[in-house]
Every structure is written in C-alpha cells, then in structure tokens.
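Translate structure to sequence.
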C-alpha cells in the first residue's frame, strides 16, 4: 500500500512568495506543495500537504496523522517557538515527525533559537529554503523504510 506523509504548515506560511522574500524565498506555498507531491510521486509515496494559521487545527492534523499517515514533516512557523500543545501532540503520536524550517532559525533573532517542538521530534532540518521540505521527505522515507 502507498505510504502517505503529511506535510503540515503553520501560521503565515500561506503568505510565502510575498512574505519577506529575502528570508523565505520567492516560491509560494502552492509551489512548494507541488514540489513535494512530485518528489513523493518520484519516490513512491503520497504527500498530503496542508496549511493552517490555527494552533488547534495543527493539533487535530497531528492526531489524524497518527491514525492515518506514515510520518509527518512540520513547519510550525512561529508556533515552533511557543507551542507546548504541538509538543504534546507530537509526543502523543507514534509515527515519526521531522521539524523543518525554510530559514536558518539559529542565525536569526534569539527568540527563534528555542524550539518547543524539537525535543519531541526525530530531527530538525533548517536553512535550506524550499529544499528543506525535500530533505524532510527524504528523512521520513529513510526513517520509515523497512527493507534495507
Ligand atoms: C520559519 C521560521 C520561524 O521562526 C518563523 O516564525 C516562520 C517560518 C521558517 O520556515 O523559516 O514563520 O518556520
């Protein structure tokens, strides 16, 4: 059966393309979603790509992923730095979760250096622009591959 990975996006990521392009690049979220789906197709898995500006919706989607997906890549946006609810939701599911960011959060303001979700995820990818999404999908694939 085809594996599905959820790719979840948090607040303000719907504004990619016009939001601080010097930091986040010129691609829209739709462009990145398309890129992820194509990568999944080439590698043999499905990608369910979603965005919400609401913390509770992201919590609901993590629970849903725990029941129906093989893994999750999440760019939680600013909730990365604040959300104990997302930390707990990640801990509450047993599929692997990879945290990702377009920008190198460690090279930016100090308030971005702390991630509330990092202790709950398998690993963190940041600083590679849109390519961070592709790297996160590859990480999930290697984490969930059974025959190697
Ligand atoms: C971000 C980094 C966060 O600090 C910021 O709040 C975002 C985007 C990134 O992808 O680089 O919204 O997650």
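Result:
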């Amino acid at each position: 059966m085809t594996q599905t990975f959820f790719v979840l996006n948090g607040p303000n990521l719907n504004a990619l393309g016009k939001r601080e392009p010097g930091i986040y690049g010129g691609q829209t979220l739709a462009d990145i979603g398309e890129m992820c789906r194509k990568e999944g197709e080439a590698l043999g898995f499905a990608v369910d790509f979603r965005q919400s500006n609401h913390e509770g919706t992201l919590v609901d989607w993590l629970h849903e992923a725990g029941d129906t997906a093989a893994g999750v890549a999440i760019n939680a946006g600013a909730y990365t730095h604040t959300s104990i609810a997302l930390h707990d939701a990640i801990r509450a599911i047993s599929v692997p979760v990879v945290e990702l960011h377009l920008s190198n959060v460690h090279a930016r303001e100090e308030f971005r250096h702390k991630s509330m979700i990092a202790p709950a995820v398998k690993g963190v990818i940041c600083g590679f622009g849109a390519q961070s999404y592709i790297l996160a999908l590859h990480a999930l694939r290697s984490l969930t591959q059974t025959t190697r």
